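Could you help me review a protein record that somebody else here produced? This is what I was given.
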Amino acid sequence: MEPIQRVPVIVQVEARIRELIESGQYLPGEKLPTEKELCQRLGVGRGTVREAFRLLQARGYVELRPGRGAFASEPAPVDEMGAIEWLVQNEQQLRDAIEIRRALEPMAARRMAERGDQASISALTELHKEFLIAVENDNVARIAELDERFHSAVVAGSGNRLLVSIIQQVNQEIKTFRSKTFRVPQNIRNAVHPHSSILRTIQSGDADGAEAAMRAHLDKVQEDLMDNIGSPERAC
């Protein structure tokens, strides 16, 4: 007998709104019910509906027009599997990769804080600025790219060539993960402050702080993964 899986509320709300579109009740270009109306129908908070709309927009089902609301659009055909479904199906591979990152990247952050030269720290600072701009623009592809470049820059800044080689291999394993995980709005939000903390501690040469900041960040990545897939571990 398979264990009962906890499905996050946002996923349930996203599915209900998607059904309205896929069933033909709302054709491309037609305005969807307002956040307030959906809150009343589904018995959830406005924040949950808003996050579901953003997830549907990332998947190509909804177009959000500032000041006007949400409109049905043609689902994007390029992604046959939704972000959450993909994360569920690849759970063990992702757990393995995060485990390696949690072991190695905090050490890299410590070493960069200790050894990083001004050029590498300046480059990391610019990457973070670009990351924040991509977040502001909801550019998921750019966010995923800059997340990889930011973490790779920290590893490179450690000065450990073997570590760089190992992380390059890990990055190849999780490239699709990055493109999927940032389709979930909460995962984007949960990366902004940690990146800022990592950068700040490296800039100040705080080795203990940099190591702790990176570890806390990757712990949150692990936690977000479990939240996204509704892991039975977290339901017990």
About this structure: Residues 24 and 72 are 10 Å apart (CA to CA).
